[in-house]
Amino acid sequence: MRDSENIRAVEAAGANWMGFIFWPKSSRFVSQCPSYLPTKAKRVGVFVDQNVDEVAQKVSDYALDFVQLHGQESPEYIQNLRNLCSTGNEKPFAVIKAINVCCCADVNTYKAYQGLVDYFLFDTKAEMVGGNGTKFDWSVLEAYDGNTPFLLSGGIGPDDVKRLHTWFSSGCGSAATRCIGIDLNSRFESAPAIKDVNLLQTFIDSLTSYHHS
């Protein structure tokens, strides 16, 4: 997200968390602070192998609730980031580590970060980092046996309500019980960083109806 009016509309549609991409190579890069930032939805800053000082500055400037690390950041990097931010006056933030997935072996890379991060995000492995609009086979998440909650990502679109409901209902080992959210991005866009609010609202309403039925 980066357009103020679109941010307002998406927040009103019921988004719980909202992403701001601070990686300059992304078509969704936030180059300047929008005039409106969400007050109800939590703020997620997305970074890719960036200097910890730069990340810490964005945490402060945007009052981020979450830092999402979408590159090859090491466990040591994450510890250094936490140490740096704990010495200042920044409010506490949670760390989300993205795990790019194609097969079970990819899922198991989470183990290096267990206990260091607050959430994982399982996304589709591809040449481009994030926002590819393509899915991975969710059944590989049967390999996930960690206790850290995670977000499901990777090309989830308006036509996936029934598939998501089936996945949550049938379970996927212990994985479905650890999934606390769904990442929605490229397949709800009318342009990079601009969400189609009608599509998003319909999806949220439909998924909620399935959940309560």
How would you describe what is shown here?
The protein has 213 residues and is of the alpha/beta class. 31% of the residues lie in helices and 19% in strands. It contains seven helices and nine strands, in the order αββαβαβαββααβββα. It has helices at residues 4-13, 52-62, 75-86, 104-107, 161-170, 175-178, 197-212; strands spanning 17-21, 42-47, 66-69, 94-101, 119-124, 150-152, 179-182, 189-191, 194-195. The protein has a seven-stranded parallel β-sheet. A two-stranded antiparallel sheet has the order 8-9. Strand 8 and strand 9 form a beta hairpin. Helix 2 crosses helix 3. It is globular, with a radius of gyration of 17 Å. The two termini are 31 Å apart. The relative contact order is 0.14.
What characterizes the major β-sheet? 7 strands, parallel
Which structural class best describes the helix and strand composition? alpha/beta
Mean pLDDT, all residues: 91
- What distance separates the N and C termini? 31 Å
Helix content: 25-40%
Number of helices: 7
Strand content: 15-25%
Spatially, the strands of the biggest sheet line up as 1-2-3-4-5-6-7
- Low-confidence parts: none
Note the overall shape.
globular
Note the run of SSEs as H and E.
HEEHEHEHEEHHEEEH
> Rg, please?
17 Å
In total, the number of strands is: 9
